[in-house]
């Protein structure tokens, strides 16, 4: 499956420079992931960063004015379902009542759909922010309900789902659904107590969680994951 999101493996140390009017500390490390969104297709996206003032990132922080007019971001919650936010040139991000929605928070560890409008071409954006560090976020909690949940790995690094730092502690017959935007289909992998994660042909797989990407997880029981920062600095 073609990877749609590529980690750019360089962090920029910011020393004594004011960025976006935020207080900058000597340990600030600014990173970014390159996100490829296919034209006229949905893509699952996430953010592994925070703002330099340590606040959670919003629609404006992540996308700003980088996407085409009438792009829609769908945020999912189990129970209420999807909440759409639409970008309009000149007005920014608005909700269904046409009220400003640019300050809507998109949490690390969550994921959301980006739907480009009809007639659009492939879009490349750079999700940017401060790299979570020990003083800010050495762990990240993901609440997994019984049933379906969109999630992501909350740090800018690739990590196997089998790595203890992913927090994932699967139960027998749990499933992860990986969206393939190019093929417009899901790849589903199932966990078996005796065999680990298997594909549809019952072959073992090592699922690599990619920074900036989102996934569906389907669990038979509610649980809590503690994701652990997988790098030493910052």
Summarize the structure.
By secondary structure, this protein is mainly β. It has one helix and 18 strands. It folds into two domains: 5-130, no CATH class; 139-228.
Please give the structural blueprint.
Blueprint: E1 5-7, E2 12-13, E3 29-37, E4 42-45, H1 59-62, E5 72-77, E6 81-88, E7 92-94, E8 112-115, E9 123-130, E10 139-144, E11 147-151, E12 159-160, E13 175-180, E14 185-192, E15 196-198, E16 208-209, E17 215-219, E18 223-228
Antiparallel strand pairs: 1-3, 2-3, 3-9, 4-8, 5-6, 5-8, 6-7, 10-18, 11-17, 12-16, 13-14, 13-17, 14-15
For the biggest β-sheet, the strand order reads 4-8-5-6-7
| Cα separation of the termini | 32 Å
Number of strands: 18
Query: What is the overall shape?
Result: globular
When the domains are counted, the total is 2
Largest beta-sheet characterization: 5 strands, antiparallel
Number of helices, counting only DSSP H or I runs of 4 residues or more: 1
What can you tell me about this protein's structure?
The chain is mainly beta and 234 residues long. It has 2 domains: 5-130, no CATH class; 139-228. 2% of the residues lie in helices and 38% in strands. The protein has 1 helix and 18 strands. It has a 5-stranded antiparallel beta sheet, with no helix packed on it. It has a 5-stranded antiparallel beta sheet with strand order 11-17-13-14-15, with no helix packed on it. Strands 1, 2, 3 and 9 form a 4-stranded antiparallel beta sheet that branches. Strand 6 and strand 7 form a beta hairpin. The longest helix is centred in the first third of the chain and has 4 residues, at 59-62. Residues 1-26 have low confidence and may be disordered.
């Amino acid at each position: 499956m073609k990877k749609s999101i590529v980690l750019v493996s360089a962090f920029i140390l910011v020393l004594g420079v004011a960025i976006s009017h935020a207080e900058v500390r000597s340990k600030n490390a600014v990173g970014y992931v390159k996100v490829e969104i296919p034209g006229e297709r949905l893509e699952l996206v996430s953010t592994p960063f925070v703002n330099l003032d340590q606040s959670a990132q919003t629609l404006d922080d992540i996308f700003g004015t980088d996407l085409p007019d009438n792009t829609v971001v769908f945020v999912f919650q189990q129970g209420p379902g999807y909440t759409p936010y639409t970008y309009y040139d000149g007005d920014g991000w608005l909700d269904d009542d046409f009220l400003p929605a640019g300050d809507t928070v998109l949490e690390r560890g969550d994921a959301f759909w980006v739907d480009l409008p009809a007639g659009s071409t492939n879009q490349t954006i750079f999700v940017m922010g401060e790299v979570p560090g020990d003083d800010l976020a050495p762990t990240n909690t993901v609440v997994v309900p019984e049933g379906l949940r969109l999630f992501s790995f909350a740090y800018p690094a690739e990590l196997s789902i089998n790595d203890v730092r992913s927090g994932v502690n699967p139960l027998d017959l749990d499933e992860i659904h990986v969206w393939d935007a190019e093929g417009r289909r899901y790849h589903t992998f199932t966990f078996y107590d005796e065999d680990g994660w298997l594909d549809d042909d019952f072959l073992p797989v090592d699922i690599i969680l990619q920074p900036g990407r989102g996934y569906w997880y389907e669990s038979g029981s509610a649980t809590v994951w503690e994701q652990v920062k997988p790098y030493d600095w910052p």
